[in-house]
DNA sequence: ATTCAAGTGTGATTTTTATCACATCTTCCT
DNA sequence: AGGAAGATGTGATAAAAATCACACTTGAAT
């Protein structure tokens, strides 16, 4: 579960109402996590939501054969964690701070009280959760149905929507991502990602700017992943 | 969005409370859809939920290059449709009846009234939606990270959980699925699926029974897709 | 029972992706 | 500034998956 409470760079996120927002703020307490440290581990009890006041978090999972993959990346203003239903009371993934983070922690039971009392807040949360579900669905589609190049293209488009800014007449992705991380995100090897990126660069579709990815021809990327033109709220990391 | 209100064959689905269930039943009306017909099309306004009283529905999407893939398959007792947030007011996929269906239709606004009035029902719906999100997340993982053979194995396991029954000392999947459909589900070609299945059969992992798939060695399948041992509520179609 | 359409099975070949093995480039640490 | 660790870039090769082409089965319909 993830949602964005406010936004800085992002132009395209759904907002909780002021009322809900302040209700949440009332019940959260602050926690600091240094870069490289973990907010929680696989197997920990999943009874909290986390609101990122500052920093980047990635959710990862390691497989039996020692590989790791990235389930999600969150930024300033995002809210994530399981509103654990009845049964899955443990996280099935790790949450690592990519940068130093300031986190607002919300106890599930505190939240539940609010939801119970205020049907309209619960409905708002419900719609939000539905939106997240749509995001996940669309990722599933993009990562599964058009090969690794399609998966990569789609991911770059999503990064542009989530972390992009205009730069000259290009889009600059303001977040540095390693080739290996992209690989862990789309289920490909570092080398494959590297080669695909090199290829997109020689074709003039992508560029470089001081280590940041520039998108030169976003339509070409859309063609590769058979972009459906989803609303920006859905086409995001 | 999909949830199962009750179950017949399925051993492993989360239940809405009686109260919620009857509240839903009160506001739904009935619709019949013949096999091969569509319940709705991509682009139709998404302002309803659908409860399958009887039959099978698949959600499909066709790409620009004429291919089709399957997003989801639903059965007796499942509830699906978008509780459209504020903005994505259209379906982005088609819903086709695989068999003759009897559908209970719930208008979104009717539902919303109930949720508003009864915070506890809204919370229940919220948890359910979260569960669906977890299901989708786990599918994303399974379909992305261990190749097409892993995707296929995971899908067979999910089918066993959703439509399986004991047969001798095997599990028989009581729903016939075509190779091509499996391909559309996991993002592989019919031929690849066919070869993979043949391979699993020669290895003795799968069997045949009158056109139905038999699972002989489920542990082997789990090994292939690096099964995490998710709860049955999550490891389903 | 015969026919036709739909589905399955398989070979040959090409394309995509992973693997292994290094060289090079960057970063950042003292 | 120098050196180590972490990233990136790339070749050679192997494995996985798609594509094309066609034979074989099955099942439903006349």
Protein architecture, described:
The structure is a homodimer of 237-residue chains. Chain A is an alpha+beta fold and 237 residues long. Chain A has 7 helices and 13 strands. The first copy, chain A, has a 5-stranded antiparallel beta sheet. Chain A has a 4-stranded antiparallel beta sheet with strand order 3-8-5-6. In chain A, helix 3 runs antiparallel to helix 4 (147-163). The longest helix of chain A is centred in the middle third of the chain and has 26 residues, at 119-144. The first copy, chain A, is globular. At the A-B interface, helix 2 and helix 3 of A face helix 2 and helix 3 of B. Chain A binds a DNA duplex (30 and 30 nucleotides) through residues 147-149, 178-180, 188-192, 194-195, 198, 211.
Write the layout of secondary structure elements.
The structure is a homodimer of 237-residue chains.
Chain A: E1 2-4, H1 18-27, E2 28-33, E3 38-40, E4 48-54, E5 57-62, E6 68-74, E7 78-80, E8 94-97, E9 101-107, H2 108-117, H3 119-144, H4 147-163, E10 164-167, E11 170-173, H5 179-186, H6 190-202, E12 206-209, E13 212-215, H7 218-224
Antiparallel strand pairs in A: 1-7, 2-9, 3-8, 4-7, 4-9, 5-6, 5-8, 10-11, 11-13, 12-13
Helix pairs in contact in A: 2-3, 3-4, 4-7, 5-6
The structure holds a DNA duplex (30 and 30 nucleotides).
